[in-house]
Design a protein that fits this description.
The complex is a heterodimer of chains A (about 260) and B (about 375).
Chain A lengths: L6 E12 L2 E12 L3 E5 L6 H8 L7 E6 L2 E2 L5 H8 L2 E4 L11 H12 L4 H14 L15 H12 L6 E5 L7 H18 L2 E5 L3 H7 L2 E5 L6 E4 L2 H7 L3 H7 L14
Parallel strand pairs in A: 3-8, 3-9, 6-7, 7-8
Antiparallel strand pairs in A: 1-2, 1-4, 4-5, 9-10
Helix pairs in contact in A: 3-4, 3-5, 4-5
Chain B lengths: L17 E7 L2 E10 L1 H4 L16 E12 L1 H16 L3 E2 L6 H9 L17 H34 L7 H11 L4 H24 L7 H39 L2 H8 L3 H39 L4 H11 L2 H28 L4 H33 L2
Parallel strand pairs in B: 2-3, 3-4
Antiparallel strand pairs in B: 1-2
Helix pairs in contact in B: 4-9, 5-9, 6-7, 6-9, 7-9, 7-10, 7-11, 7-12, 9-11, 11-12
Classes of the chains: A alpha/beta (about 260), B alpha/beta (about 375).
Chain lengths: ~260, ~375
C-alpha cells in the first residue's frame, strides 16, 4: 500500500484542467499527519484550483487523491460527502451564508449532521466562536461584521464538525498585518489543540514562513510543480530562479533578465 | 533640413505644446517647448516619416523650452522613439526629465498586438450540433433538479427534510403577502381597461350587460393568471436568480457542497415551494381585484345597479374557469421558480454575471409562461373545458 501511517492524503500525478486548458499537471505530494502543508505559487498558477479538487469541488482530469488510502474521486457522492465531514474548509472570503446569522452559520452543519439537542448545539456554537474570539457576534449577520471577522467566523464554522483536516484558501488575503499574524497564531493553536492536519494556500511570505513545515511550489508557465519542501527550506536552499524570486520577494526573475539589453 | 513645426511660425499661446526638428552635425535635434499636458493640448502625434534615415546618427532632444508635462508628453516621446528606430537613429534620452525617462523605460519598443480573446470559430454544423447537445443536457439537468426538488418536497411533508422552516417562511412572505399591492394594482387596471374597451364596443349592439362575462371570464381564465405570473417572474424570479448567482460568486454554494448540504433541498426547495404555494392564491386575489376594476368602470359608464352587475357576473362565470386558472398558476409558478434557480446556479461568478442571470431568468420566465399558456389553451380546447 502506498499510504503508510504517516501519510494522510497522497496525491498522485494529478492533472487539473478547464476544458482544453491545462491548469496543472504531474502534481504529486504526500500530506503528512499533523503537518502544515503550504501550496505556494504566483497568482493564477492554479493553487486554489488544486485546493478545489482536494475538497470535492472540481473533478481532476487525471490522477488520484488518496485519503487514508481511499481513492477520493472514485467514491460515490455519498461516500465522498462522508469523507468531506473529516474536512474543514475556510474559503477566501469566509463564504458565510449571508441569509443566516453568524451563530446559525456555525450551527447549520451540526443541525444537519448530528442529532444533538438545540441547547447543546448552542453551547458548542458559543464554544467554537469563543475559540476565534467571535462569541459576541453570534446573533449578527455576516453583512454586519468586518472582513476579518467574517474569516474568523468562517474558521469557527470550518471546525464545527471536529474535522481532522483543515483547508485554508488564502487566509491572510485582505487582512492587515496584525490581524493576519493573530490568525496565524490561531491556526497553530487549533492545529495543536484539535490535532488537525492543515493544508494552506497562500502567497503571504511572513505567514508561510511562520507556520508551514512542508509544501509544494506550483509554476504558472510550465503548469507543473517545480519545487517541494518547507517554505523555509526553499528560501534557504532552492536554486530554481522562479522559487528564489518568489521567496525573496524580488520583482524580476534573474534568468529572465538576460534577454534585456 | 528646414525647421518643421505643426504651429508654423505663428506661435499661439506660449503654453501650447510645440516641436520642431533641426539638423545638427551628428544627426537631428528635436526641440520641444510649451506645456505638454493632456489638458493643454491633448496627445500630439509625431509623424512616423518625418525623420531622415541616417543610420548611425543620433536623435537629440532639447527640452529647454519645456514647461510642465504629463503622459501627453510621454505618448509623444514614445512616437518619437518608434520613428527614430524606424529611421535607424540612436534615440538619445539624456536631456529628458528623469521621471519621463523612467516612464519611457516601462514602455516596449513598439505597442504589442492586442491579445485575441478566444472565439468560437467552428462551422455551422458543429455549432448546431453543439447547441443541440447543450439543449439536451440542459433538459436533463433541469428535469433532475425538478425531480430532486419533488423528492425533497415529499421528504419535507414527512418531516425529514434539510429545509429550514425559517427560510421557507421568509420566501413565502416575499412571494405572497409582499406582492399583494403590485398584483392588486396591475389586475385592477387590467380589469378596468377590459371593461372600458368592452363597453364601448358592446354598446353598439345594446349588449352592455355582457361586459360582466367579458371581464369575468377573460380574467379568471387567462388574463389574471398570465399577468400575475409575469409580475412574479419579474419580481421573484429575477430575485431568485440574482440571489443564487451572488451566493455562487461569494463561494457560499461551494461551502454548502463541501459540507454535503444538498443544494436542492436547501436553496431550491424553499424558493420553489413558496412560489408554487403562493401564486395560485395571488391569482385568485388578482381575479377578484380585476373584476372589481371592471365593476368600477362599469358603474360610471353603464346603467346597471351594483347588485345587478354582481348577479350577472356570478351567472356568467363558472367555477371551472377559476379551477383552470388556479391549476395553470401552479404550473406557471413551478416553472418560473425552477427556471430562475437553474439560471442562477449556472451563472458565472462576476457582478456582470449576476445581472445577466437576473435578466435571463425574467426573459425565460415570461416567454415560458406565454408558451405554456398556449399549450394549456390547446389542451383545454381538446378536452372541451
Amino acid at each position: 500500500m502506498m499510504s503508510d501511517a504517516e501519510t494522510l492524503i497522497s496525491v498522485r500525478d494529478l492533472q487539473l484542467s478547464f476544458g482544453p486548458k491545462i491548469i496543472q499537471q504531474n502534481v504529486s505530494f504526500d500530506l503528512k499527519r499533523g503537518s502544515i502543508f503550504a501550496i505556494m505559487g504566483g497568482s493564477g498558477c492554479g493553487k486554489s484550483t488544486l485546493l478545489k479538487s482536494m475538497i470535492g469541488l472540481l473533478r481532476p482530469t487525471a490522477g488520484q487523491i488518496l485519503v487514508d488510502g481511499e481513492d477520493y474521486w472514485a467514491q460515490s457522492d455519498a461516500r465522498r460527502t462522508d469523507i468531506n465531514h473529516r474536512y474543514g474548509v475556510l474559503f477566501q472570503s469566509g463564504a458565510l451564508w449571508s441569509s443566516m446569522t453568524v451563530g446559525e452559520n456555525v450551527a447549520l452543519p451540526l443541525e444537519m449532521f448530528t442529532s444533538l439537542k438545540p441547547d447543546t448545539i448552542r453551547r458548542l456554537v458559543e464554544l467554537k466562536l469563543g475559540f476565534v474570539g467571535m462569541e459576541q457576534a453570534i446573533d449578527l449577520f455576516p453583512s454586519e461584521i468586518s472582513g476579518g471577522m467574517c474569516k474568523r467566523a468562517g474558521l469557527a464554522r470550518a471546525i464545527a464538525l471536529e474535522p481532522d483536516i483543515l483547508f485554508f484558501d488564502e487566509p491572510s488575503a485582505g487582512l492587515d498585518p496584525i490581524t493576519s499574524a493573530r490568525l496565524d497564531d490561531l491556526i497553530l493553536t487549533l492545529r495543536d489543540g484539535l490535532g488537525a492536519t492543515i493544508m494552506i494556500v497562500s502567497h503571504e511570505l511572513p505567514s508561510l514562513f511562520a507556520i508551514a513545515d512542508d509544501g509544494i511550489f506550483l509554476d504558472a508557465k510550465t503548469h507543473t510543480p517545480i519545487a517541494h519542501g518547507s517554505p523555509r527550506a526553499l528560501h534557504d536552499t532552492c536554486k530554481i530562479p522562479e522559487v528564489t524570486a518568489f521567496m525573496n520577494r524580488s520583482a524580476s526573475i534573474p534568468s529572465a533578465d538576460k534577454t534585456e539589453g | 533640413m528646414a525647421d518643421q513645426s505643426p504651429s508654423s511660425g505663428l506661435h499661439k499661446a506660449a503654453d501650447t505644446p510645440a516641436w520642431s526638428l533641426q539638423n545638427t552635425a551628428d544627426g537631428v535635434c528635436l526641440n520641444v517647448a510649451g506645456a505638454w499636458t493632456v489638458q493643454a493640448g491633448g496627445a500630439t502625434p509625431f509623424p512616423q516619416d518625418k525623420l531622415p534615415v541616417e543610420p548611425g546618427h543620433t536623435l537629440h532632444i532639447d527640452t529647454s523650452g519645456l514647461k510642465n508635462w504629463d503622459s501627453a508628453f510621454v505618448a509623444f516621446l514614445w512616437d518619437v522613439k518608434q520613428a527614430a528606430s524606424k529611421a535607424q537613429l540612436h534615440f538619445d534620452e539624456q536631456n529628458l526629465p528623469a521621471p519621463a525617462q523612467r516612464l519611457l523605460a516601462l514602455l516596449p519598443d513598439a505597442p504589442a498586438e492586442p491579445a485575441q480573446p478566444p472565439r468560437n470559430t467552428e462551422g455551422i454544423f458543429a455549432r448546431v450540433g453543439d447547441a443541440t447537445l447543450k439543449g439536451l443536457t440542459e433538459t436533463g439537468t433541469v428535469s433532475e433538479l425538478a425531480l430532486e426538488t419533488a423528492k425533497g418536497a415529499t421528504q419535507a411533508v414527512r418531516g425529514k427534510s434539510a429545509m429550514r422552516m425559517k427560510d421557507l417562511l421568509l420566501d413565502i412572505w416575499n412571494a405572497g403577502p409582499d406582492a399583494l399591492l403590485i398584483v392588486g394594482i396591475v389586475n385592477f387596471l387590467v380589469g378596468a381597461i377590459l371593461a372600458f374597451v368592452g363597453l364601448v364596443e358592446l354598446r353598439k349592439f345594446a349588449a352592455e350587460i355582457y361586459v360582466t362575462d367579458l371581464v369575468g371570464i377573460a380574467c379568471a381564465r387567462e388574463i389574471s393568471a398570465i399577468m400575475t405570473a409575469i409580475i412574479m417572474a419579474g419580481r421573484t424570479g429575477g430575485a431568485y436568480a440574482a440571489r443564487i448567482s451572488t451566493m455562487l460568486g461569494n463561494e457560499e454554494i461551494d461551502a454548502l457542497q463541501v459540507f454535503g448540504i444538498p443544494i436542492s433541498s436547501y436553496i431550491l426547495l424553499p424558493s420553489i415551494v413558496s412560489l408554487a404555494l403562493m401564486m395560485p392564491l395571488l391569482y385568485l386575489y388578482g381575479t377578484i381585484v380585476a373584476i372589481f376594476g371592471g365593476f368600477a368602470v362599469s358603474m360610471s359608464m353603464m346603467d346597471v345597479s351594483p347588485i345587478g352587475y354582481w348577479i350577472s357576473t356570478f351567472d356568467g362565470v363558472e367555477l371551472k374557469e377559476f379551477i383552470f386558472g388556479f391549476i395553470k398558476s401552479f404550473f406557471f409558478a413551478s416553472f418560473i421558480a425552477l427556471a430562475a434557480c437553474r439560471v442562477g446556479l449556472k451563472a458565472g461568478r462576476s457582478a456582470a454575471d449576476v445581472g445577466v442571470a437576473a435578466t435571463r431568468a425574467v426573459v425565460i420566465g415570461i416567454v415560458g409562461i406565454i408558451a405554456m399558456d398556449a399549450i394549456f389553451a390547446v389542451i383545454a380546447n381538446a378536452l372541451g373545458i
